[in-house]
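Much of our argument rests on the idea that a fold can be written as discrete symbols. This step matters because it turns folding into a mapping between discrete strings. The record that follows shows the chain in one-letter code together with its fold in token form.
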Amino acid sequence: MSDEGSSNLQPLERATLDAPVARRIDAMLERLNAYDFLAALALAESVRIDAPEHELAAVCRKEALSVLHSFLESPVRIARTDTGGLSEDAFTLLMASDGCTPASLLPAEGIERVRALHALHDLVRLEYFETRENTFVEAMVSPDEPRVRIEERANAAARDELRRVLELFPNERFGIGRCDEIDFSSLWRTPEFAAAKEILPLAVGTASDMIRRENDLKLHAHDAYVDRFILLAAKPPTSEEMQVLYVIIAP
């Protein structure tokens, strides 16, 4: 493997993190639009130090953390052992990372967190860590491949799962709903679904993601299964915790 690695993440210059807030916001949006969520997160965190109430940085931070959740909360697997050319911060982070989750290595706030995120970006860019493609999604595809946004890929996966479920029940009507993750196991006991033949999960995610996915799936179901799709009368959940998107068969 070359010293530059083979990912398409571009270096994040330390000077950019020390630039005026307006320049950091521009760089943050550029990285977000390029699907480099780790760099976008580092920039958003740096803006929060100087402008704690900056709304755009808060939105960017939330989106980046949502995308990076599985990577940050999964134990690191080191793919390279050579350390020549690494910054001091990146070297220190690498030496402490084996078997740990990236989240556990990141300080909670402040410039120390920004420096750690910058170091983590370098280690990912140079492929010191093994990462699944869906960890960074479009950031890891080659530049000549068409880039599809994460939400579009997630919606497509939910539609595929719906198709697989309905193939098991080719003659039944169905509805699509959403509930708090903690409530899913007992959902079939609620009065609204007492007559249901089956209740199956289609996707799990944050409340805002699941709302968008639910709307996309309902539009798809209405067009693709016009005679079989029915609207559910169940009250939608209000929790901001993780939620489950599900399909009810013959409610």
User: Anything to note?
Assistant: The chain is about 50% helix and 10% strand. Residues 150-249 form one domain. Residues 1-6, 133-148 have pLDDT under 50 and may be disordered.
